[in-house]
Amino acid sequence: MTPSRDISRLIEIMAALRTPVTGCPWDLEQDFSTIAPYTIEEAYEVADAIARSDFEDLRDELGDLLLQVVYHARMAEEQDAFAFGDVVEAITRKMIRRHPHVFADKDGNIKPAGVKSAWERIKAEEKAERAARRPAQDTAHTSLLASVKAGLPALSRAMELQRKASTVGFDWNDPRAVLAKIREEADEIEAALDGNDAKELAEETGDLMFAVVNLARHVGADPETALRGTNAKFERRFAYIEKALAAQGRSLEGATLEEMDALWNEAKVAAHTA
Questions:
Q1: What EC number(s) are associated with this protein in UniProt (predicted)?
Q2: Are residues 216 and 245 in the same domain?
Q3: 246-266: per-residue pLDDT in tens?
Q4: pTM score, two decimals?
Q5: N or C: which end of the chain has fewer CB within 10 A?
Q6: Domain range holding 129?
Q7: How many CB atoms lie under 10 A from the CB of residue 151?
Q8: Whether residue 44 sits in one domain with residue 11
């Protein structure tokens, strides 16, 4: 098996990895739910490479993301649901349909102002068609939250769910009330620790995170951006610990938690005085 610029080679590689007995044991164990987190991770890696303007890295990360598409398509093909070619056909059909001003058989000229309205109209038509293909459901009630996309990252979706609910007054009027809710959720986690029930602890932790997102919304902070900033701050301070220990000829493994914590506090002071 040799590398190739042809997508068919990647499809062949994935088929080989998923072939029982001769394939990769790890790949054979995976399913849609276990691969989905990797798909999300690779999308973030693409965004990170773009933010750094690293085109060599972007090329590699786009390949990793493409692999995710091929992986899901292969698993679907194994279940006789659809194949990679069906994915390509579906997106090409969608793009042609959504750009009649570009791909129209006749004169499809349209003014820039009309492009967005046409796009939204066609998207609405597609949504209605998808709904018609799904099994019949109770349509007597449509939730206010139905318009919040299920595919959003969890932090962003929590923010949108809360924002949508707030439009009808289901909200706190004071950030301090949200702080009280955060304390309440923290207390519930502490109580759950006594029971040592992993499922309950995960649920209570999710409640706490949801409340923290609510606080971010109330103080005008984007939770994703705020967390990215904290991640970067953590990395800087941890690097300070590593460098300080290295200057002493020591390693992380040889330091006590108390020593590392003291260096962490030094990093905090250094950041504030810089």
A1: 3.6.1.9
A2: no
A3: 999 999 999 999 999 999 999
A4: 0.61
A5: C
A6: 103-133
A7: 7
A8: yes
